[in-house]
Design goal:
It is a single chain. The protein is α/β, with parallel strands linked by helices. The chain folds into two domains: 175 residues, P-loop containing nucleotide triphosphate hydrolases (Rossmann fold, 3-Layer(aba) Sandwich); 178 residues, RecF/RecN/SMC, N-terminal domain (Glutathione S-transferase Yfyf (Class Pi), Chain A, domain 2). The protein has eleven helices and 15 strands. The radius of gyration is 22 Å and the shape is globular. The chain binds adenosine-5'-diphosphate and magnesium ion. Magnesium ion binds next to helix 1.
Length: 359
């Protein structure tokens, strides 16, 4: 997958921006607060309909403007895709190849990206909810079946919880929601199990390639054991659920675990190890997406060198498959100049103005 052109109009600090990257590695250099992350954020939004920094579109519109418009032209192995997103005073419009989409989720999977930002260390250090968001976001991009099951499952949990908060919840109605939860929950668990099973060896390999030391082990930690029946668990926990007024068991309580050097990374690993583990996870997705879709996703690495030493930075760059297009931001280049070959395209951004440096 190859980004040919990204355009932004009044998106964050970018009043009018056009970005035409090349194949391979593209370096976007600039001081703090010049708009580097905003460029990647725009492409992330076009791929997933979400920003990693906010859920409020009003924050994405340039201050003083009533809306924004962004668009991407992407070449896939079998077709070209044009995605446009526009937001104007509270209403959102998404177009794929010029056709308005009724639902925002229609854009998922049209452009597939793997995005890494410094905040992603929260995947290792943060809450289980953050790891579930990761699973949901990544699987929604590559599996329409997962996206469908997720939407249905969330709806069923919401309805069941509403029912559980009634003074006298109706058992027959609870049976109906239990059946929904069991069916869609089983799909979520099966897809998550497969995803993590496919991801874990690549993540371990990427971790070792970057860290050159201790091993890293990634595992899926489902709330309900994979060999157990979700409907039986729901039936057995119904009394507790009624008492607590919520659904206490199921894949909405799932987690992932990272072990570094045979110890849980959350309490024991150093900041650098945690960051490397999160990065390894993202790198492993490149091969997984290629195995599933026949092509690499677009890799975006935001400020990735900020906490990595020179050795880790160099090994990271060699771990990126040369065929994958990569958009990489950095503040200082002087310390890292030797890492980049002549084939890498260079851009510079200052106060939202992007220009190519090498051409
Ligand atoms: N909605 C907005 N309107 C105008 N400027 C914004 C908006 N959101 C963020 N900014 C500005 O954009 C800059 C941050 O951009 P960012 O892409 O995070 O920079 P970088 O990644 O280069 O450090 C800040 O100066 C911030 O004030
Ligand atoms: Mg930034």
């Amino acid at each position: 997958m190859f980004l040919i052109e990204l355009t932004c109009e009044n998106f964050r600090g970018l009043s009018a921006m056009r970005f035409a990257p090349g194949p391979g590695v593209n370096l976007i250099r600039g001081d703090n607060a010049q708009g580097k992350t905003s460029i990647l954020e725009a492409l992330l939004y076009l791929a997933t309909s979400k920003s990693h920094r906010t859920n409020l579109e009003s924050e994405l519109a340039r201050r003083g403007e009533g809306g924004f418009r962004i668009g991407a032209h992407v070449r896939r192995h079998d077709r070209d895709v044009n995605i446009e997103a526009a937001w104007w005073q509270g209403s959102k419009r998404i177009r794929v190849n010029g056709v308005n989409q009724a639902r925002v989720s229609e854009i998922l999977g049209k452009i597939i990206v793997v995005f890494f930002s410094p905040e992603d260390v929260a995947l290792v250090r943060g809450s289980a909810a953050q790891r579930r968001t990761f699973l949901d976001m990544e699987l929604s991009q590559i599996s329409p079946r997962y996206l469908h099951a997720l939407q249905q499952y969330r709806q069923a949990v919401k309805q069941r919880n509403e029912l559980l908060r009634h003074p006298q919840p109706n058992d027959a109605l609870l049976d109906v929601w239990d059946a929904q939860l069991a069916a869609h929950g089983a799909t979520l668990m099966e897809e998550r199990r497969q995803f993590v099973q496919q991801l874990a060896p690549g993540a371990a390999q990427a971790y070792e390639a970057i860290a050159e030391k201790e091993p890293m082990v990634l595992a899926y930690k489902p709330d309900v054991r994979l060999d157990a029946s979700l409907s039986e668990i729901l039936a057995a926990s119904r009394k507790t659920d009624i008492r607590q007024g919520m659904t206490t068991r199921g894949p909405h309580r799932d987690d992932l675990s990272f072990d570094v050097d045979e110890k849980a990374a959350r309490p024991f690993a150093s900041q650098g190890q945690q960051k490397t583990a999160a990065l390894a996870l993202k790198l492993a997705e490149l091969d997984l997406v290629r195995a599933r879709t026949g092509e690499y996703p677009i890799l975006m690495l935001d400020d990735v060198f900020s906490e990595l030493d020179a050795g880790r930075s160099r090994r990271l760059l060699t771990a990126i498959p040369p065929e994958a297009q990569c958009l990489l931001t950095t503040t200082d280049l002087t310390a890292r100049e030797d890492l980049f070959g002549a084939s890498c395209a260079r851009f510079h951004i200052q106060a939202g103005n992007l220009r190519r440096e090498d051409a």
